[in-house]
Design goal:
alpha/beta; 10 strands; 14 helices; 10-stranded mixed sheet; Rossmann fold
Amino acid sequence: MKISASIKTVLVLLSLTLSCKSDDASPKAYLEATVLDQISTENIRDYWGQNPQALPFIRHNVSVVRITYLTEDLAGNKIEGSGAILIPEGVTSPQVISLQHATFFADEEAPSENGAFSVVSRKSIFAANGAIVILPDYLGYGVSKDQVHPYHHAASLSRHSLDMLNASLAYLKDKAIPHQEGITLAGYSEGAYATLALARRIEAEQSPIEISYISLGSGGYNLLESFNYFYGLLDDTTGCLPCNGFLIYSYWSLSGRERPVTDYFQSPYAERIENGLFDGGFNSQQIDEALPENMRSLFAPDFLQRVANGQEAKILGLLGQNSLHNYFPNVPILITHGTTDTVAPFFNSENYAERAKDLERNIEFVPLAGVNHFDGIYFWGIHTMNWLNN
């Protein structure tokens, strides 16, 4: 990204002004905040491919602030977490959106690591439309990248997202940055799952945070049913094999690593995984190139047989425990999902929306006919902004 000399000068001054440490080390306080980048409307238009449907929303330059805060690891130990806050320029009273990001694999793609990556750049359209956007890194990325990211793990995702949200609100108050009171929760793919987990934690902890709206795009809410769906497609070559492999690797880690990794993955992929394939040093394309074409070739035959016999109790039990398809927040919810999604099966949103309507929840479900998972994020973003603007 090219930045003019004048903008660089402004960034230096802002960094000197904003970089600070909070004296209050409580979980709701931020520890340090520094301006990371600035994204112009011109850059955002390019990120969105000059999409004519997106262009009307791109109205403000965006500052990217890196923030750290106190949170917890899986054992409950106090650690630092991190993320990014996207702040639009020239907006008097912006909305606040806690936006949980989708799946990525490389440490360098974390929101707090680099404002030029797609995680920030694609989401910057929400800030360019006039909202303050809060982007948690999650456990396993940013300052906690020495740990394995607990992929689709409700407790971890919600803990880090809520602590990031509280820290960001403390930062906005400290810097006297005005904003609207109600918070919108939004996310796509793993971010949609994380958003639902965050809403549940806010409710369970009786947090004073007021949720105004929730937007979910192409999420997998019934993890066990989704796993069983993919188990029936062991020879299929579509979808996201790195995602499926990462899920089992993550849940193997969560279950205590009682068996060797070779009990779950075939050679030579087991050795590649054991040597760090999912530990943050590789992006999705590199991981895809290091894996075979389908699940049958990736997973160990004994693991697949244990699943078939109902003997993989720990991992299957964790998938069931972390499914969120039975939780229905009582706030307005928008759900979009591509009907040809081979990464997060369409039935996740379809079934969830049907049950939510049966419970008389305020839900708008938008099936995206013929749209796959990778294109669905753009449709979701535009639908979300239209929905919020109305």
